Amino acid sequence: MFFDIGPLELIALVILAILVFGPEKLPKVIQDTARFIRKVREFSDSARDDIRRELGPEFKDFDFEDLNPRNFARKHLLENEDLGLKEIRNGFDLRQELAEVTDAVNGREVTSGGSSAPAPGDPAAPAPGGSAVDLRKDGTAPRNDPPPYDADAT
């Protein structure tokens, strides 16, 4: 509503003002407050006009909201299509890059589709005979459990 004050909060402020100033003085206080706010607005408008006049015609499009760093960055970096930032942002796939690095660290080969294939010496690699299941010497299939975590080694 007004300065992000809800209707119940506004009612509470009116009741509080009546209790503090009394019903006789409240209209005078409201007039004085409105007059003060009007003078502050006039002062800020005249200061803004003075600054624009002193800057000259080169800065006629100058907006004081641009002095906020967030608005400045949004206006000059994110909305500027000449830089091509949107294409760079859309062309960069962080998940695929991380998957490739992880596969390289784990010794798996990366196929052309971006998926990883086990390295030839990897226990999870298929057997040379074409069997998808590789059995250990004792006849059991290998488990894909992660290696044990050693907190002292890190």
UniProtKB/TrEMBL annotation:
Domain of life the protein comes from: Bacteria
The main location is membrane
Q: How does it sit in the membrane?
A: Single-pass membrane protein
The record's keywords, sorted A to Z, are: Cell membrane, Membrane, Protein transport, Translocation, Transmembrane, Transmembrane helix, Transport
Instruction: State which residue ranges cross the membrane.
Output: none
Signal peptide annotation = none
A Gene Ontology biological process in which this protein takes part is: protein transport by the Tat complex
Q: Which InterPro entries match?
A: TatA/B/E (IPR003369), TatB (IPR018448)
Biased composition regions of type Pro residues, renumbered to the chain: 144-154
**Span list, region Disordered:** 104-154
Q: Which GO terms describe its cellular component?
A: TAT protein transport complex
**Care to name a GO molecular-function term for this sequence?**
protein transmembrane transporter activity
Q: Name one Pfam family in it.
A: TatA_B_E
Q: Does the keyword Repeat apply?
A: no
**Presence of keyword Cell membrane:** yes
Q: Where in the cell is it found?
A: Cell membrane; Membrane
Q: Could you describe the subunit structure of this protein?
A: The Tat system comprises two distinct complexes: a TatABC complex, containing multiple copies of TatA, TatB and TatC subunits, and a separate TatA complex, containing only TatA subunits. Substrates initially bind to the TatABC complex, which probably triggers association of the separate TatA complex to form the active translocon.
Q: Which family does it belong to?
A: Belongs to the TatB family.
Q: What does this protein do?
A: Part of the twin-arginine translocation (Tat) system that transports large folded proteins containing a characteristic twin-arginine motif in their signal peptide across membranes. Together with TatC, TatB is part of a receptor directly interacting with Tat signal peptides. TatB may form an oligomeric binding site that transiently accommodates folded Tat precursor proteins before their translocation.
What protein am I looking at? Sec-independent protein translocase protein TatB
Q: What is the lineage of its organism?
A: Bacteria, Bacillati, Actinomycetota, Actinomycetes, Kitasatosporales
Name of the coding gene: tatB
